[in-house]
Every structure is written in C-alpha cells, then in structure tokens.
Write a structure and sequence with these properties.
The structure holds two protein chains of two kinds. Helices cover 72% and strands 1% of the residues of chain A. Chain A is globular and about 55 Å long. The radius of gyration of chain B is 21 Å and the shape is globular. Chain B starts with a helix and ends in a 5-residue tail after the last helix. Classes of the chains: A mainly alpha, B alpha/beta. Chains A and B meet through β1, α15 and α20 of A and α2, β2, α3, β7 and α7 of B. Chain A: Keywords: Membrane, Transmembrane, Transmembrane helix. Chain A: This is Tricarboxylate transporter.
C-alpha cells in the first residue's frame, strides 16, 4: 500500500488555503470555458498558462488541471441544453441529452451527465493512483501496428454498432478521411491537396469543423423552423439529483463498461472523443431496446460522459509517466511542466513525489468540488436560455466564430467554419450522420500514419497486425465488430441473444 | 489618448534605464512563434525564453508562445512570411528554414525575414535501446546482419533525422528502414518500447529516457565531444559520449536555433530584439537550460549571422541534394 501513503502525502501538500482557492478559481474558469463552444479545454489552458509562471509548480498544475476538469464538466451543459457540443468529446452526449431536454427532463440529463463525469474521473484517478508504474510499461508495448489496430477498432465499432444506415456511415466516414488527408503528409514529407494555398497547409482543424458542423448547422436548422426557442431551461433541485442518484445502481454495467473503455483509450492515446463514441455505441448495442436510444434515454447520457471523463483523466497518466500526451489539453499541460523545470518521464515519479502526488490528490478533490460547483451553478449558465432565440443566435454565432478563430488565429478558419455549417445542415437534411465524419477527421491522419509506419516496419506484409497477442486480439476484435450485425443476425437465428440484464423504463 | 501617453512614458523610462538601445520597444504583447508541436525542443526553448524574459523583467510587454507546428512547421514559416512589417512576432527557427522549401516546395525563403540572432546549436546523437548493441561497431554489424528491416526512428520525412540516416547508410554500408514519427518525443518512446532499433534524436528529446536507463547514446554527430562534464546519469555525462568520427563513422551535423523577425521591420526594432536576446543568453535560466539540454552555446548577430546562415544553407542544400530529397 505504498500508493496509499503517497496519496495521503499528496493531500497534505494540497490542503492549504491558497491551493484550495486556486482550485475553485480554476474550476469556475474551466466551466465557463467549457460552456463556450470552441474555446474549450486546450485553448483555455493555453491562454491561462502564462498566468501560472510565477506560482510554484504544484499550485500551477493544480489550477491548470482544475480548469481542465471544469471544462470537462462544462462541455455537457451546452450539449444538453442547446444541442451544441462545447467540446468534441461532448458530441455523443447530445444524442440523448438533447432529446431529454426537449422532453422537459433537462435537469435529469444534466445531473446524469455531471454524476457520470464524476464517476468516470474517479475510476480513472483510482486507476492512476494504483497502477501508475505498471501502466507506463504497458503503454510502451504500443508500436505503429498496435496504434493502427486501436484506430481500426474505433472505426469498425462505428460502422458495426452505429444506429444509422451502414452505407451512410461509410459515406460520412470516407469524406472525413478524405479531408483529413489535406496538408502535410508526415510519412512522405510532401504536401497533399493544398492546391498551392498557404491556408490549406495546416490541414483542416478538427475543432473548426466541429464548431461548424454542429453549432452553425444547428442555428441554421433552428432558423428554418421559425425561430422557435430550442434551448431548454433547467434548474436542478435536490429532489431531481437524489432521484437520479437513487437509480444509479441500476446502470452499473453501463457505468463500469464506459469507465473501462475510457481508461483504456485514455492511456493508449485513443482520446476522449473516440471513448465517448465507443461508450455510447456499446451501451446501445447491449441494451434491450436499442431503438429507444437517440430519443432521450438516460443511459445515452451516462455512457458517453463516463467514458469521456475516464479517458480525459487517464490521459494524464501517459503524459506524466512517459511524456506522451493522450489529449490536446494534456499536450499543453506537458508544455507547462517543462516551464516549471519538471521533465515528464519515468523519473518524475521518483524525483518529484510532491508534485506528482499533489496533482493526483488534486484530481480527487477537484472532481468532488467540481461536481458540487457545477450542480449549483447550472441555473446561472442555463439562464442564457431565458433570452429570446433571436438574441441568443447571433451571440452563439459570434462565440463560435471567436472559438474557431482562436484555435489558430486564422481568419480563414472562420470561413471554413461557416462552410462546415452549411455541410452540416445538408447532412442533417439528407440523413447522413455527422459523427463518423468528425471521427474520421480527427483520427484519419493518425490511423494512416500508423498503418504506413507498420508497413515500412514489416516490409509490407499485413501479418504484422497479428504478430503478437496484443495487436492480434485488437485487430480481430475490430473485424468482429465491423461485421457485428451479420454475426449478431446469425447468432440470433440459433436463438441466442446478448442482453443487458437490466430492465430500463421509458 | 491614455495609451499613447503611457507608451511615451514607457519609452522615456527605457531611455533613462538603457541608453544604448533606446528608441523602440514593443507596444503590444510579443509572440514567440514555434515551428513545432507542444513539448518539442523548440517549444521547450521558447518557454524557457518566456520564463527568462518575464522573471528578469527584460521587457515591459508580456510574451506569449504560439505553437504553429502545422504541416511540419511550414505553418509557422508562412505565418512569418505573411506578417511583414509586424515587429511583435519572433520566430524561433531551426534547419527547417532551409529544408522545407526544398523538400515540399513551400514558397518560403529565410532571406525574406529579418535575422535577429543565432542563440544555440543543437547536437544529434545516435541512440539505441539499452538492451541493444553497446558500441557503434556492434551496432553497424547488427544492422548489416539483420534479416528483417532494421528500423531507425526519427522526426518527419526528408528532414534532419532522415538526412542523417541516409548518410549513416552511405558511410557504414548498412541498410535502415526509416520510420518518420510526428515528434522527437514519440521517436524516443518508440525506441524505449523496442519498436525501432535506433534513433538520431537531439539530446533534449532523449534526455529523460537516458536518465531512466532505457536508451544508450552511441555517438554524437560533431567534430568534438559535448563540453558538459557533470553527470547526467549515475555513471555518464554528456562529455562521455564519443564522437561518431572517433568510432569510425565520419558523419557530422549541427542544427541552428535562431531568432527571426518578419520582413520589412525597422532597424530600431531589429536592434531591440538583438539586445533582448543577448540579455536572454546572459540569464541563469538560459545557461541552465543549455547545459541541461546539452546545447552548444553561440551568439551570432548582424553580418556574422547572415554569413553563418548562407554557409549553413549551402551545406544543407548539398546534403538534401545528395540524399535525393529535393522535390523536382
């Protein structure tokens, strides 16, 4: 129980008034940043990083990581109330969160989102606490074939488990992969599909696309439907919170499954985005009535939120232990660590115990304080909704534009965002799902690089994807998931069906 | 009206304090533009400068680091090119300024920017996994004997690491499969995990995994050994690493780390930054950083710098041409 002693030491480092105040400040800033579409965790942390240079490393990382937790919590608010994901990993939360809000169950959806965020983070922190040394050596097992297998798994689970027509998912994913190819190709060192334009050099930024596809297209759709207020008011009463919590044990399978997926993808840098989608799709797959998903089911909120937060939190582990950031925000925190003279790596755990365990302790405290804070301040953030839509819409468009601009300080990105807004609108009209598109845009590049590096390394044989137990089982699982509908059909014919044991009302 | 008055006040204050380089001073926050991703060697250096400038009050305006690592750093180059006349942006450049225009036909020429100063030279070291061969000779023998592709990791394609790999092949007669990763950090981890046999990372990129005993430095690609003699690991210092020439492989390469302003800025503006970065190289933060990351100290400015750049450019161009990396 060495870890336990060290953790207690971490709490001792943390429990000073100064640190606690910084924690609160960080959380409030984070929620704010999370609510604004596009601004998001990575940008928030990046903007506030210079503020912390005068602080000691422990206070600084506590504040920055609290901004991160805050942003993780805040992203859910706009997803549920406005159908605009504040963060890319909140996209899957909109699938059922928004329909719930439409049915007047916004408070329940929000409580579910916050609570499951909390549970996801908690599981991940527990994991970090007790498995840190072991996991850092596990992550080292990941070479190009393993990375590709994980990406393949994510893609396949989308096609095989998604609720939309398969061909539409594939169309959407292919378009995303195509756009992901724009810009510099790391493997050959050449430019692709830039057509001589310096603006296209950097490629299409994922966040710019997401803001347009989800935010702007939603505004366009709403305008078409005669400017009706589509956001939903919410205030959370203690009664609602307690009733949601009372039902929690019923969903333990979903929560556990999503936590597991999240931790796994966070540590093997698959990312919170992939985790939230995978969590959602699996919950749906194993549910009794999969067709009720997307119409406002509380499990549809639990599953992606738990996974996203478990992943967001556990992404810090490879960053601390190996210096590999599992997410964009982790990458910025990594930059911060170096400013304070701390070099992430296996030795960080040995040489800077105060710092590492102070940070881990702050994950526990930050999440508890964050949960309370976010439950009590929802009415404030949701009060934007009492303003008429005609006034809110321009504000949302402006904040989307600022968000898109701020990512790379590029005017071109605002035009791109508007373009994606139109694309999103058309896609929604003709029933092509947006999620596979965004997923392919974010993972396409990495999946391609991983595949080509595997091919260079193996001399061009596909056997490399079955060259050891780890990569072999992930690849096989991916292929099983891709053909899951067929396999499921065959199994169904012989009278066996995988069922979630839980009875779900509604 | 308030702002101009303040600016005049600030300018007079500077006049009184540093009579030599008075005249111009930034009126807006200054951006250090990094042509690489978060956590890479350029980013770390920019953060060090940011901290050194702020802690020692070398400038009134705040300084921010902006990461423009898109398209393997081409994003930063195009950004600087399009910021002509803007004295609030400083690029922290490395050899990509010569290589990218050649390999990817990026319409960029460093002569269009305003040179400020060369602040350091970065080394390259041949590393292998600590479980691998112990000397360069054994390493070359292992590479020659390997039946499966012998994998060399590195950052990017047709860049410094790739060029070095090609020259290693030419000098030793061994054959490597070059795996281009997105960053030096990734190349380091992949070596530790035994997914590659070796890499040619900068000292800073492999420092932590070396200290943890996971990789072994075989030789440094320079005429002379690194000068820092304090122990980095339990038994070794940077100076203990032999040069590749000593080990019978005559390949040398050093990479510049230099500061540039956009084109068409005034002489006073240029002078301000020359002075600023000169002061930075005097700070404890800079000295500490140089030693920790095993960088070679250097400070060139004005004519010396331009001459250095021209020679360095010619050298890089001939290496790139010989390696066959120049786009037609």
């Amino acid at each position: 129980m060495e870890a336990f002693g060290l953790l207690l030491h971490g709490f001792a480092v943390l429990l000073t008034w100064k640190t606690l105040v910084l924690m609160m400040v960080g959380l409030v800033l984070g929620i704010f940043v999370g609510v604004l579409p596009g601004l998001g965790g990575p940008n928030g942390v990046a903007i506030l990083l210079p503020l912390t240079f005068t602080m000691d490393p422990t206070s600084a990382i506590v504040m920055l990581s609290c901004i991160y937790w805050g942003a993780l919590f805040g992203g859910a608010i706009t997803s549920i109330l406005f159908n605009i994901p504040g963060e890319a990993w909140s996209v899957a939360t909109t699938f059922d969160g928004y329909p719930m809000a439409q049915k007047g169950r916004a408070a329940e959806a929000l409580t579910a989102a916050f609570t499951s965020s909390f549970i996801g983070s908690l599981v991940a922190v527990l994991l970090i606490t007790f498995l840190a040394p072991m996991i850092s050596s596990f992550a080292l097992k990941f070479g190009p074939p393993e990375f590709f297998a994980v990406y393949l798994l994510t893609f396949c689970s989308f096609v095989g488990l998604g609720r939309e027509a398969k061909h539409k998912t594939v169309i959407s994913m292919s378009l995303g992969l195509l756009l992901a190819g724009i810009g510099m190709d790391t493997v050959s060192g050449n430019l692709r599909m830039t057509f001589g334009s310096p603006e296209l050099l950097r490629g299409i930024n994922f966040l710019v696309a997401v803001i347009g596809l989800f935010g702007i297209s939603e505004i366009l759709l709403t305008m078409e439907e005669r400017l009706a207020l589509r956001g939903h008011a919410a205030s959370i009463s203690l009664r609602v919170v307690l009733s949601v919590w009372k039902d929690l044990p019923k969903y333990w399978v979903t929560l556990l499954r999503s936590s597991f997926i999240g931790c796994w993808l966070g540590i093997t840098p698959g990312g919170a985005i992939a985790a939230s989608f995978m969590g959602y799709n699996l919950a749906k797959r194993f549910a009794k009535e999969p067709e009720s998903f997307g119409k406002g089911r509380i499990e549809g909120v639990f599953a992606p939120e738990t996974a996203a937060h478990a992943s967001g939190t556990s992404a810090l582990l490879p960053m601390l232990a190996l210096g590999i950031p599992g997410s964009g925000t982790a990458a910025i925190l990594l930059g911060g660590l170096m400013v304070w003279g701390l070099n992430p790596g296996p030795l960080l755990f040995v040489e800077h115990k105060d710092f590492v365990w102070g940070l881990i302790a702050s994950m526990y405290l930050g999440n508890v304080v964050g949960l309370v804070l976010v439950l009590t301040t929802v009415p404030i953030f949701a009060s934007i909704l009492r303003v008429p839509f005609a006034a809110v819409a321009p504000m949302i468009v402006v904040s989307c534009a600022i968000g898109a601009y701020a990512i790379q300080n590029a005017m071109f990105d605002i035009w791109l965002m508007l373009g994606f807004g139109v694309v999103g609108y058309v896609f929604k009209k003709i029933g092509i799902p947006l999620a596979p598109f965004t997923l392919a845009l974010v993972l396409g590049n990495r999946a391609e690089d991983a595949f080509r590096l595997s091919m260079i390394g193996s001399g061009g044989t596909l056997k490399v994807f079955w060259s050891n137990g780890l990569v072999g089982s992930i690849t096989t699982l991916a292929i099983v998931l891709l053909f899951w509908p067929v396999i499921d059909g065959l199994l169904g014919r012989v009278g066996w069906r995988q069922r979630d044991k839980l009875a779900i009302k509604d | 009206m308030r702002i101009p008055v303040k600016a005049v006040g600030a300018a007079t204050a500077l006049l009184l304090s540093t009579p030599a380089f008075a005249g111009w001073e930034p009126a807006k926050p200054v951006e250090i533009v990094v042509a690489a991703g978060a956590g890479g060697a350029s980013d770390q250096m920019a953060r060090m400068m940011q901290a050194a400038i702020q802690k020692n009050n070398l400038m009134k305006q705040p300084i921010v680091v902006s990461l423009k690592g898109g398209a393997s750093g081409a994003e930063a180059l195009m950004y600087m090119k399009s910021s002509e006349g803007d004295p609030n942006k400083v690029l922290i450049a490395y050899s990509l300024i010569y290589m990218l225009p050649l390999s990817a036909k990026i319409p960029f020429n460093w002569r269009e920017l305003t040179p400020v100063s060369v602040v350091a030279l970065d080394q390259f070291v041949l590393w292998d996994n600590s479980a691998g061969p112990k000397t360069v000779k054994e390493f070359v023998a292992a590479a020659k004997a390997a039946s499966a592709p012998f994998k060399m990791g590195g950052t990017g394609s047709k860049r410094e690491d790739h060029v070095l790999t090609v020259f290693l092949e030419q000098k030793t007669g061994a054959k490597f499969s070059y795996l281009p990763y997105k960053s030096g950090g990734e190349a380091a981890t992949q070596l530790v995990g035994n997914h590659t046999e070796a890499n040619v990372n900068n000292p800073s990129e492999n420092l932590e995994v070396w200290r943890a005993g996971q990789v072994r430095p075989l030789c440094v690609f320079d005429k002379e050994r690194i000068s820092y003699t304090s122990k980095v690991t339990d038994t070794q210092s940077w100076a203990d690493i032999p040069t590749c020439k000593e080990e019978g492989v005559d390949v040398q390469y050093l990479m510049l780390r230099a500061m540039f302003l956009p084109g068409k800025v005034t002489a006073e503006q240029q002078a301000f930054y020359v002075d600023l970065f000169h002061k930075v190289t005097q700070t404890a933060e800079y000295k500490d950083y140089m030693e920790k990351q095993a960088l070679k100290p250097i400070f060139l400015t004005g004519k010396d710098m331009v001459q250095f750049l021209e020679e360095d450019d010619a050298l890089n161009k001939s290496l790139m041409t010989e390696a066959g990396f120049v786009a037609k």
